[in-house]
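User: Quick sanity check before I run a bigger batch. Here is a single chain. Can you write out its predicted 3D structure?
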Amino acid sequence: TLSKEEFRLKQNVEPFIHYKEKQATFECITRENIEAVAAKGKHCLLEAELSCVKDLLRREIYPIIVYVKICEKNVKKLRKLPLRVESEDNFVRLCRAKEKELEAIPCLYTTLEPDSWTGTEDLIGVIKDRILEEQKKTIWVELDLL
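Assistant: Done. Predicted structure follows.
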């Protein structure tokens, strides 16, 4: 988390992978942040847009992208999560739009189907399992699309 002044100074030195302005501060993700976590043998859960995938790949950071398919039937299961959405219908529409964006990224991703989890606790376990599965795979990146 950086103040506006710190953000402007650091932005000129190295571009951020992702940032979000929150009131008078900026929450930033840098390569150093990710490398520090990776050095501990851990994964980072990034709250970032798909547009940062190319930046990650250019920096030789290979994301594991898990798309949780949301539909009218399972959106109600997410009520326990701190989601800020106007309505469940809008959230389902937003998720479908993100699915279209996924098709354009220059790397593979995995999808969790709506019937693969029953609630938020189960979803967390299923995501962790999928991350472990994906971690074992050989990656493939279309470098000419970066």
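The helical segments are 4-13, 31-39, 53-58, 88-102, 120-135.

User: Great, the batch can go ahead then.
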